[in-house]
Structures are given as structure tokens and as C-alpha cells.
């Protein structure tokens, strides 16, 4: 299976990575799991925000890849775009946790640009 399709699963796993960062070492009650994150501060709070943003980014990315595949965009182009998106999303989370808001916004923009690029490829606009 091409990397572009595997990347959907990898992007879907990113919220779990940031959830682990947010929860690791914090007092945890499995009866009320969201309380830990609701009380989080500092890097844990930012990791939780990264988790939420990663979940929000997944549907449009998955749709863009699927549409591009359905429109028969060559997989080598999709694989490169998928790698750039995945890297941007990982860097986005890192920037969130490290509290680098300008860099975070720049890599978010790069990731969103990849989604637009995928739709443009699918529409044979570029």
C-alpha cells in the first residue's frame, strides 16, 4: 500500500501521542479521565491542545488524500505531499508543547497548504 494511504493512519495516531505527553506522570483517575486534562497547565495543557488540533486536522486531510486517489493523482506526488503533511503535523505538536506560537502557526499553515495542494492536484488545477 502506498505511503500516502498509510499516512492517514499515522496522522490519526498523532492525537494519541499528544495525549500521552499531556497525561504522562500526572495523577490519573480512570473514572474521570477528562478531569486530568481539564486541570492541566503548562506543557501538559499545550499537549492537550495539540491533541485536540490533531483530531481536528484529520478529517480534511483524509478527505484530501482519498479524493486525490479517486481522481488518480500519481502516488509519487501523493507520497511526497503526505510526508510533508505528516512532518508539519508532528512539528505543529512539538511547537505547541514547547510554546512556540509563531513557529506553530507557520507549520500549521504548511500543513493546511498541503491539503489545498492535494485538492488542486485532484482537480487537475496544477
From TrEMBL:
Query: Main localization of the protein?
Result: membrane
Name the domain of life: Bacteria
Q: Where are the transmembrane segments?
A: 58-75, 106-125
Q: What is the protein's given name?
A: MAPEG family protein
* InterPro entries linked to this entry: MAPEG-like_dom_sf, Membr-assoc_MAPEG
Organism expressing this protein natively: Paludibacterium denitrificans
Give the UniProt subcellular location, in the record's own words.
Membrane
Record keywords, A-Z: Membrane, Transmembrane, Transmembrane helix
Q: What does the entry list under GO cellular component?
A: membrane
Amino acid at each position: 500500500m502506498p505511503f500516502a494511504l498509510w499516512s492517514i493512519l499515522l496522522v490519526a495516531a498523532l492525537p494519541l501521542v499528544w495525549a500521552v505527553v499531556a497525561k504522562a506522570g500526572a495523577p490519573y483517575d480512570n473514572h474521570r479521565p477528562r478531569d486530568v486534562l481539564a486541570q492541566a497547565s503548562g506543557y501538559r495543557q499545550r499537549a492537550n491542545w495539540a491533541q485536540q488540533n490533531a483530531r481536528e486536522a484529520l478529517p480534511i486531510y483524509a478527505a484530501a488524500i482519498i479524493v486525490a486517489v479517486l481522481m488518480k493523482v500519481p502516488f509519487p506526488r501523493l507520497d511526497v505531499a503526505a510526508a510533508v503533511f505528516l512532518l508539519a503535523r508532528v512539528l505543529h505538536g512539538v511547537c505547541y508543547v514547547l510554546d512556540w506560537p509563531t513557529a506553530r502557526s507557520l507549520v500549521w499553515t504548511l500543513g493546511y497548504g498541503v491539503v489545498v495542494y492535494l485538492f488542486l492536484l485532484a482537480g487537475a488545477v496544477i
